Inverse folding.
């Protein structure tokens, strides 16, 4: 006779497992729901009692508006193009120097301001503070621009600063002459009003950022390092105010870059015996290299979403989404893998998920009937914060998987350290406060720059580097960056001036207030 007891015990165990799974599911859902309803990491210092630091107001009348726009347009008209590290328009750089001295006479004549040229064409300003115990900070911008030609399809000549509607068109209106002229215009107005900062500040204007900044920003950094300067924080260009750009987000978002992806340029090459095309071998140098490139494209770098600062971006924005996105983004501890899979489907969001791989050049062949002896390709990689340059090179080597293909690093560097963005982070919170004072309806969040800026040269002088300018980007505007029809509205340029005018005064805050409430942690 069969004993039914073992079957009963199996059934009982199975039932217990189901009940346990159900209980865990209910507990997880409850925890996730509570976090969704309560999470707002933006509250922090917004409701805290801030020390009053700003007391000078900026009033822009018609005459002043005409002057500031005329100065900005003149800056855009000067073609300060960097073609390569050895091919800079030095004539234009000297012309730009003369413009700065003419446009901002108080900055250049004030006894509070020390100015010096660095590497012939870059500018360094030191505005002395009245309280030397307060660590100084650095504002960065760059003079040079990338090439542009009317034949590329511009609606206005790229160095005309022509007005079309409410916009000024021209190369550099976004990157980066609006920030450069905006911060100097703000300082000019403050000095005219008799302002003297408590906290000292530097303003550095590099002349070769578009070709890596090795002459300009790097020279400024070495100069400050020799002088023993340690900075509270650095603020450079980078991210912006996004309005209608992030699908499903309620209202605009200002993203402050707290890191930059690393970068690498890798050369792949194959050498074989040349021959006549009438007697081809089974594999040619072109075929071998093409197969290696295909393997790289078919096997992207691992998905790393949530292991870098991009996770904080979505947590800060979560409360501005509707369900179910709000539920997912509020609970990345549970759904980071799911969200990563969603983001990797599109090229523009895939960049936040992993190290990206782009084949940008392929060279081979000299004649249609000759089997080439050599083929080479260049691959550009933007390295995720959770990886290192060496890890990426190892993955490329293993993915290529063919000893006939030489893998050579041309140039590269690791991702930049992640700067602080919590409630004790002086630089981040001062920038955030300045943004919210100017744009009260904006949601502020930390972000990551997928491109690189001059700020990376200053990582030895500070732990906190931020990348933000209050430029408003609406759908389609990101393509204007280094593209055609780069432009800025006259209103937005005035907002940049107001931003730096307020920021400089806000930085006189000695210390941050105690937070009103803390972010919820699971």
């Amino acid at each position: 006779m069969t004993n039914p007891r073992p079957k009963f015990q199996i059934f009982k165990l199975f039932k217990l497992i189901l009940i346990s799974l159900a209980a865990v599911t209910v507990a997880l859902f409850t925890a996730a729901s509570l976090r969704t309803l309560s999470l707002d990491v933006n509250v922090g210092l917004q409701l805290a009692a801030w020390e009053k630091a700003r007391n000078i107001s900026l009033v822009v009348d018609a005459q002043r508006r005409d002057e500031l726009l005329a100065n900005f347009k003149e800056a855009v008209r000067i073609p300060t193009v960097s073609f390569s590290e050895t091919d800079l328009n030095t004539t234009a750089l000297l012309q730009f120097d003369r413009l700065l001295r003419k446009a901002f006479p108080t900055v250049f004549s004030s006894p509070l301001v020390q100015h010096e040229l660095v590497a012939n064409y870059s500018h360094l300003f030191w505005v002395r503070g009245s309280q030397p115990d307060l660590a100084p900070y650095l504002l960065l911008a760059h003079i040079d621009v990338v090439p542009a030609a009317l034949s590329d399809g511009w609606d206005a000549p790229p160095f005309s600063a022509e007005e079309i509607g409410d916009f000024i068109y021209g190369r550099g209106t976004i990157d980066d002459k609006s920030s450069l002229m905006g911060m100097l215009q703000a300082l000019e107005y403050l000095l005219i009003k008799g302002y003297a900062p408590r906290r000292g500040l530097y303003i550095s204007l590099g002349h070769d950022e578009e070709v890596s900044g090795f002459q300009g920003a790097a020279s400024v950094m070495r100069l400050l390092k020799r002088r023993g300067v340690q900075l509270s924080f650095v603020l450079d260009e980078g991210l912006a105010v996004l309005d209608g750009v992030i699908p499903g987000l309620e209202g605009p978002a200002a993203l402050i870059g707290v890191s930059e992806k690393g970068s690498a340029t890798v050369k792949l090459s194959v050498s074989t015996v040349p021959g006549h095309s009438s007697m081809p071998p089974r594999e040619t140098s072109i075929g071998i290299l093409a197969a290696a490139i295909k393997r790289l494209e078919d096997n992207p770098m691992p998905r790393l979403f949530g292991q870098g600062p991009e996770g904080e971006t979505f947590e800060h924005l979560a409360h501005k989404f509707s369900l179910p996105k709000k539920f997912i983004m509020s609970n990345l501890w549970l759904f980071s893998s799911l969200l990563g899979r969603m983001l990797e489907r599109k090229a523009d969001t895939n960049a936040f998920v992993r190290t990206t791989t782009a084949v940008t050049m392929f060279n081979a062949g000299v004649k249609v009937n000759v089997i080439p002896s050599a083929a080479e390709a260049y691959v550009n990689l933007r390295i995720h914060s959770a990886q290192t340059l060496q890890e990426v090179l190892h993955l490329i080597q293993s993915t290529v998987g063919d000893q006939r293909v030489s893998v050579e690093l041309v140039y590269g560097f690791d991702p930049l350290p992640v700067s602080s963005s919590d409630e004790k982070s002086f630089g981040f919170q001062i920038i955030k406060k300045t943004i919210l004072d100017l744009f009260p309806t904006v949601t502020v969040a930390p972000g990551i720059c997928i491109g690189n800026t001059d700020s990376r040269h200053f990582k030895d002088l500070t732990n906190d580097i931020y990348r933000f300018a209050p430029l408003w980007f609406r759908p389609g505007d990101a393509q204007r960056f280094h593209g055609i029809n780069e432009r800025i509205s006259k209103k937005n340029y005035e907002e940049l001036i107001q931003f730096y005018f307020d920021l400089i005064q806000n930085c006189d805050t000695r210390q941050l207030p105690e937070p009103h409430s803390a972010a919820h942690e699971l």
Observations:
- The chain has 14 helices and 19 strands.
